[in-house]
Protein 1
Amino acid sequence: MASAAACAAGSGLPTARAAAEHAAAELALDDDPAAAAEHALCAAELAGSISAVVAAALSRVLAGRAFAAAGETTQATTELQHAAADLDACGAARRCAAVEQELRRLGHRRLHRRTRPGDRDGAGLATLTGRELQVARLIADRRTNAQIAAELYLAPKTVETHIRNLFSKLDVSSRVEIARMVEHADRADR
């Protein structure tokens, strides 16, 4: 590991240094959580300095795990919340949901986050909430209800409710019609 860190430092590339620090954190996690947290935070800072938002967030997740392993629940929660916010902001919903699951394991409960509301005066896709639009896009990607539920970390019944709402708001009667509307809107946005 020392030679990898030396090679990364010698390259002068923040990406290589961030990757080396992240790897060092992974290796230290079981034996020395405090050192793992330090390496992970360094990796997050390096990745953040080059706007590698997802890499920085994933290093913060690792730092959160290390702090949790060291018994530092408050710091673990802070890092995990920061990571979740960054992942949510860049649209990495699946990774954000996984981080939120880790936060729940630490006992952190947060208020339900509502997606953006739909436009009541609009028409078509503009009337959909953010979550309904996510479901519609997954329908357009030919995903089943079970696949949508797994991807968005929702209960299957919740997916069914969203699809019922889509049928009503879009005035359609099939998943194919939903997919066509999404594909048409995507073509119009190009």
Protein 2
Amino acid sequence: MARSFYSHIKEAWKTPKEGKLAELQWQRKQEWRNQGAIERIERPTRLDKARELGYKAKQGIIVVRVSVRKGGARKQRHKAGRRTKRQGVNRIGRRKSIPRIAEERASRKHPNLRVLNSYGVGQDGSQKWQEVILVDPEHPAIQSDDDLNWICDDTHEGRAFRGLTNAGKKNRGLQNRGKGTEHNRPSIRAGNGRGK
């Protein structure tokens, strides 16, 4: 049976450090490092993943590449008022995941658009790159699209900031709800009678 074009892309992205994709990614990263933190791009780097997450090549949908620095939240050292042990500078991690930070930054840069979803496209020693799919809720092409016009409703404003995208839900611990996990958020005690 003939395989689709998307299945070949997906297979190549399973091992991006091998084969032809490795060299291509190496070249891309050279260019990405010289670009800004948030760059609008013509078409998605991972077409298969973008299509899975709702991307369509039509008016009203744009894709931006966002770079986010890796590692913990490097804090400034306190001038006074703490013991050395309590200063908390080096080992403080982020509470938000890198994809969620990328979505929020893209949403701040384009306040008239709404975040549909995001996916990773690469990383080097100091930063990670995410591609964020943004949708214009005022565009007639989006309003007449049965698959996407749900995002035009006012209840979906500020989705990235409220943690309503896939990355946001995962970061809030809501991704595996209803799949038999023991510790579902927001509460272990809610409605199941355990933990009293």
Protein 3
Amino acid sequence: MAPATQIHTHMCYSQFNDIIAAVAAMDADVISIETSRSAMKLLGAFATFAYPNDIGPGVYDIHSPRVPSQHEMEDLLEKALEVLTPQQLWVNPDCGLKTRGWAEVEPALVAMVAAAKAVRQRLEAAKARPELV
């Protein structure tokens, strides 16, 4: 296997409808975007355009000291899965964490990882039992 570099890009709050073709043309392997405040509404542009690469819609608003619950993040992931395939979906905070302290970051990231695990388990259970979908 040849070595490869995976390219990630991040875009802060944007209205992607006007620029989605240009974003896709950047050919980044993964784009992470801030979507927690909009409850994933910003993903609409990606659904109608059929974005070809992976997307990390933020499930944790790092601009607030509030620590979201695991359940809240699971809900956001489920909304993202209405637009994205599980193979496209990356789970991440909205942005970098430098504005937050460890007392906020650690429990939020623990909840985020637990939310990702719970949603993956539901997806696996649905594959095993399609009648549950």
